[in-house]
Hints:
The protein has helices spanning about 5-25, 35-55, 75-80, 95-105, 140-155, 180-185, 200-210, 215-220, and strands at about 65-70, 90-95, 110-115, 125-130, 155-165, 190-200, 225-235. By secondary structure, the chain is an alpha/beta fold.
Amino acid sequence: MIGSDVVTVExxxxxxxxxxxxxxxxxxxxxxxxxxEMLIRAGRKRSAAMMLNQSxxxxxxxxxCLEIGFGYLxxxxxxxxxxxxxxxxxxxxLDPIRVADTQKILPLADLRVGDATALPWQxxxxxxxxxxxxxxxILHSTMRRMIAGEIIRVxxxxxxxLWYDFAVNNPKNKQVRKVGRKELKQLFPQxxxxxxxxxxxxxxxxxxxxxxxxxxxxxxAVPLLRTHLLAVLVKTS
Length: 237
């Protein structure tokens, strides 16, 4: 299968997985007040801010920024705290319920329902594109490449992709597939930048963080216990 056939099958599978997770996962598991979520979000945001600043592309107030697959608010809220106005925030998400819920929080943002294989924006539009836990939800390599191509297309020269996703497989969840450093480079050969291993393994974070924040932060400092890649990749031309 190639092209539209791949997209159709993958979209159906992803939507079915959305429905399964809604049925089977407790609603508060990823709530912002959960200690593990606080640890994970704070760590990735801190590292991302430092990497963007070191690359000279920390977002400014007049930069247009896009998040693909923002879920419930995603990094859009972080961009607000970094000084990007709501009117310069853009997003696309497959689930219309998630779009509607996030639009209530960010009524002035440009949020759309759709898939990322054909982004509804012109070439070279965005200074920053965020792809967070997006590609690991896509199992088919062809669709991954299609979305990567769209990201490169809408990213302005000198702009950056902010990437955050699993670098290891979850043996309990066959509906996700890791993206390692090698595949990340293959997906975005035109982009150059830094890649770091971050985030304490979520099962371990959920076990330790509610009991000892100090221990959780110490464990997070151990590279072997980290499970995600964070990257800032710049489009040089």
